[in-house]
Write a structure and sequence with these properties.
Blueprint (H helix, E strand, L loop, with lengths): L9 H13 L5 H17 L22 H9 L41 E6 L8 H14 L3 E6 L6 H9 L3 E5 L5 E2 L2 E2 L3 H16 L1 E4 L3 E3 L11 E12 L3 E12 L4 H9 L9 H15 L5 E3 L11 H5 L10 E3 L20 H10 L8
Helix pairs in contact: 1-2, 4-5, 7-8
The structure holds 2-acetamido-2-deoxy-beta-D-glucopyranose (5 copies).
Length: 367
C-alpha cells in the first residue's frame, strides 16, 4: 500500500491531504484515515537506496567535429588520477531530502576524476554576445581557472564583448561543430533543446564542467572534481507547481568522462514524446534519477544554482553571502535589469559585487 515513489512527487501527498481536509463534512474518519495514509507514506517511502544496474552504452557518440579535441584531451591527461592535496578536498555538506534521508550516496574518489576543463555551448548565427556573458567567461577564466575553456558553437557570437573575450581569455578554444538535430529519431526544434542534448554528449565523451552562459564561476571546482558526477539543485523553499520540491538545473554539470548517470539520463530520452517535454527531460527527470540512482551522483543543494529563480531579490536587490558558492546562476534573461560596465560601479547588490570583482577586480564601489 505504501510502495509509492512519494519523494519524487511530494505535491501529490499534499494535494491529497488538502482535498480530504477540505471535505470535512465527510466525517472525522476520512481525516484520520488520510493522516494515517500520509504518515505511512512518509515513514516508508524513501528508504530504498540501492544502486541499480546501469544500461548499456550504445548511443552517446561524440560528433566527428569534436574528435580533434577529444584526442587532444586523451594525449594530455592533465591531473586526472592525481591525488588532490588535503586542503583542496573537503567533505562537502550532505544534502538531505525533505524526509531527512541523504539524497546522494556517491563517495568521493581518491583522485581527480573530472578534468579541469569548462565547456560552453552556443548556437545561432549573428547573435550578440552580451556583457553578462562576458562576465561569465571572464569569471571562469579568473576564478575557476580551468586548463582550457572550450567554446562549442555552430557560429561564433558577434559584438564588442565577444572581442573582449577573445582578447583576454588566453585559455579559450573555439570548437566549430554541427549541433545534434534529433535524438532517438525525434527532431529537436529549439536551440535550447539541442544544447541540452549536446552537453550530455560532450561530458560523456570528454568529461569536465559545463556552464550555461549566465553562470558566473566564483572559485575552483576542485572539491567537486573527485566525484564522477555532480549536479546542483534548483532550490525551492516549498512545493512548486508540477515540480515537487526540487529540480536539477542543467546549467551547471560536473562530470567524469563516461559517468554512468549521464548514460542513464541519456537513455530516458528514448521516452521523450514531443519537444514540449524539453523541461521535463532537462530538469525534472534528472532529479528523479537522483532518487533512483543515489550511488551515481553527488548533489549540491545551494552552492551552484542558489539563489534560484524565485529568489531573484537575493541577487538583484540584496546582499547575499555567496562565500560558499562555487558558482552563481544569474537567470539573467528572466530578470528585467540590464547591466553594463557603468551601472555596476556603485550597484549595492549581490550581482553588483560579483560583477565588479570580475570586471574591476574589486568588490568595492569604483569611480
Ligand atoms: C553492450 O552492448 C554490446 C553490443 O550490443 C555488447 O557487445 C556488450 O557485451 C554489452 N556490454 C554490456 C556490459 O552489457
Ligand atoms: C566512477 O566511474 C568509474 C568509471 O565508470 C568507475 O570505475 C568508478 O567505480 C566510479 N566511482 C564511484 C565512486 O562510483
Ligand atoms: C520509459 O517509460 C516506461 C514507462 O513509463 C518506463 O517503464 C521505462 O523505464 C522508461 N525508460 C527509460 C529509459 O526511462
Ligand atoms: C549597501 O546595502 C547594505 C544593505 O543592503 C547597507 O547596509 C550598506 O550600507 C550599503 N552600502 C552602501 C555603500 O551604500
Ligand atoms: C586582481 O588584483 C590582485 C591584487 O589585488 C592581483 O593579484 C590580481 O592579479 C588581479 N587580477 C587581475 C585579473 O587583474
Amino acid at each position: 500500500m505504501c510502495d509509492f515513489e512519494i519523494q519524487v512527487k511530494p505535491r501529490i501527498v499534499l494535494n491529497i491531504s488538502i482535498t480530504l481536509v477540505d471535505k470535512r463534512h465527510l466525517g472525522v474518519l476520512t481525516v484520520i484515515m488520510s493522516l494515517m495514509f500520509i504518515g505511512c507514506l512518509i515513514v516508508e517511502a524513501p528508504d530504498k537506496y540501492t544502486m541499480k544496474t546501469v544500461s548499456n552504452i550504445t548511443e552517446i557518440k561524440v560528433p566527428p567535429e569534436t574528435l580533434g579535441i577529444y584526442l587532444e584531451e586523451q594525449a594530455n591527461k592533465r591531473d586526472i588520477g592525481k591525488t588532490p592535496t588535503k586542503d583542496h578536498v573537503k567533505e562537502p555538506k550532505k544534502v538531505f531530502s525533505i524526509y531527512g534521508k541523504p539524497m546522494s550516496l556517491l563517495p568521493p574518489s581518491k583522485t581527480y576524476v573530472v578534468p579541469n576543463i569548462v565547456h560552453y555551448i552556443w548556437i545561432g548565427k549573428n547573435h550578440n554576445w552580451k556583457f553578462y556573458q562576458l562576465l561569465s567567461v571572464l569569471s571562469t577564466y579568473y576564478f575557476v581557472k580551468p586548463d582550457v575553456i572550450y567554446f562549442h558553437c555552430d557560429y561564433e557570437p558577434i559584438g564588442k564583448w565577444w572581442k573582449v573575450v577573445k582578447q583576454k581569455v588566453k585559455t579559450l578554444k573555439i570548437v566549430r561543430i554541427n549541433m545534434p538535430t534529433s535524438i532517438f529519431g525525434r527532431l529537436l526544434w529549439q536551440s535550447s533543446h539541442r544544447a541540452d542534448i549536446y552537453r550530455i554528449i560532450l561530458l560523456y565523451n570528454l568529461g569536465g564542467i559545463y556552464f550555461d552562459t549566465d553562470i558566473l564561476g566564483l572559485k575552483s571546482f576542485n572539491d567537486l572534481r573527485v566525484y564522477n558526477m555532480t549536479v546542483g539543485l534548483e532550490y525551492h523553499p516549498g512545493p512548486v507547481q508540477g515540480h515537487g520540491y526540487g529540480r536539477v538545473n542543467n546549467g551547471i554539470l560536473v562530470a567524469a568522462k563516461g559517468a554512468d548517470y549521464l548514460n542513464v539520463w541519456w537513455n530516458t530520452y528514448k521516452n521523450m514524446s514531443s519537444w514540449t517535454e524539453h523541461d521535463r527531460h532537462c530538469c525534472i527527470i534528472p532529479y528523479t534519477l537522483i532518487q533512483q540512482h543515489p550511488g551515481l551522483v553527488h548533489v549540491e543543494e545551494k552552492t551552484l544554482n542558489y539563489p534560484s529563480g524565485p529568489e531573484y531579490h537575493l541577487l538583484y536587490k540584496e546582499l547575499y553571502d555567496y562565500s560558499k558558492n562555487y558558482a552563481m546562476h544569474l537567470w539573467y534573461e528572466n530578470w528585467k535589469g540590464k547591466y553594463n560596465p557603468d551601472n555596476i560601479k556603485k550597484l549595492n547588490t549581490t550581482f553588483g559585487r560579483v560583477a565588479r570583482s570580475i570586471y574591476y577586480n574589486t568588490t568595492d564601489f569604483v569611480d
